[in-house]
Specification:
By secondary structure, the protein is of the alpha/beta class. The protein has a single domain, classed as Ribonuclease Z/Hydroxyacylglutathione hydrolase-like (Metallo-beta-lactamase, Chain A), CATH 3.60.15.10. Helix content is 29%, strand content 28%. The strands form two sheets. Strands 6-5-4-3-2-1-14 form a seven-stranded mixed β-sheet. A seven-stranded mixed β-sheet has the order 7-8-9-10-11-12-13, covered by helices on one side. A hairpin with a 2-residue loop joins strand 8 and strand 9. The longest helix has 22 residues. About 7% of the residues have low confidence.
Length: 313
């Protein structure tokens, strides 16, 4: 009787595990147009919103081609999405706050088991007195002699089974979009944005004649970004919804909803998606959405983890 119960318990556990794996399939299946964006993590830095932190996948023809940021929870959401490391061409890091990059070592560790041999581009900002640049950040993690995860040093040395990382460090005073990756009509550009004392980037991804902008964490002082995007009519802007319209918010780091709307309107964006959703912003979403819609007349959505936006079918 005991053995039978054990067998039944084991079978039930296997069925539950299969169901849980299967539960991730619809999110993955829904996001495979010829050009699509999946929001892996739609939350911010606080563990009060039941969301993974900032992370996105760029899908092309059913393959994950770029990972944009890798905040806490990105590793799990990446697996749930059905993405494979071996198809990634680019890892795009907007800045070095933990909620945007803490899962990068885990993603790369997983990738070391893949069969990918081709170089992977990794792009991120140059540093300043307060934050490392991309090169220093990667050396702190993966330097073969002194890195925290030196056992993954093959990503920097090109030795061993893991693919080498081709580094693209973007100047933090850049005033125009700079190319970081290109493959036919698949283009990725970056430009500096203002995030207080934190060196930070926005990314633009183009494919199928369409454009998607990952605005990242930025304040209204992102003049170069605004000028570069003005009238460019991107098909989608993903903006970070970190603060409300209320007084006392950190506007030196983030755009309030009204400023997000002004940015999207100036660019002529066809659609606006709000991600990096923090509780203080979500609690005031009615007022925030009203402030956006007062100046921006396109479609506005609030993303959840695994939200998918098909740009071209």
């Amino acid at each position: 009787m005991i053995d039978r119960h054990k067998r039944l318990s084991g079978a039930a556990a296997m069925m539950l595990a299969t169901a849980l794996v299967g539960a991730a399939t619809p999110a993955a299946a829904a996001c495979k147009g010829s050009f699509a964006i999946e929001v892996l993590g739609s939350g911010g830095p606080l563990a009060d919103d039941a969301r993974a932190s900032s992370a996105y996948i760029v899908w092309r023809d059913g393959e994950a081609r770029a990972l944009v940021d890798a905040g806490g929870g990105a590793f799990l959401r990446f697996a749930e999405s059905g993405a494979k490391f071996e198809t990634l061409d680019a890892l795009l890091i907007s800045h070095f706050h933990a909620d945007h990059v803490s899962d990068l070592p885990a993603v790369l560790k997983s990738g070391s088991f893949s069969k990918r041999a081709k170089t992977v581009t990794i792009a991120g900002p140059a540093g300043n007195a307060y934050f490392p640049g991309l090169g220093d950040f990667l050396r702190a993690l993966f330097d073969k002699d002194a890195g925290a995860f030196r056992y993954l040093s093959q990503y920097l040395t090109g030795e061993g089974d893991a693919p080498a990382l081709r580094q693209a460090e973007i100047a933090i005073d850049s005033e125009q979009f700079s190319s970081v990756f290109s493959d036919g009509d698949f283009l990725i550009d970056a430009v500096a944005v203002n995030h207080g004392d934190v060196p930070a980037l926005a990314f633009r991804v183009s494919a199928e004649g369409k454009k998607v902008v990952f605005a990242g964490d930025q304040s209204v002082l992102s003049d170069a970004f605004d000028a570069a995007l003005e009238g460019s009519a991107p098909d989608l802007i993903i903006a970070h919804h970190a603060i409300s319209e209320a007084p006392g918010q950190p506007r030196g780091l983030h755009r309030a909803p009204s400023a997000i709307g002004e940015m999207a309107a100036s660019a002529g964006a066809k659609r606006l998606v709000l991600s990096h959703n923090m509780k203080r912003a979500l609690d005031a979403r009615r007022e925030g959405l009203a402030a956006i819609r007062a100046v921006y007349k396109g479609k506005v959505s609030i993303a959840d983890d695994h939200s998918c936006y098909v740009i071209a079918r």
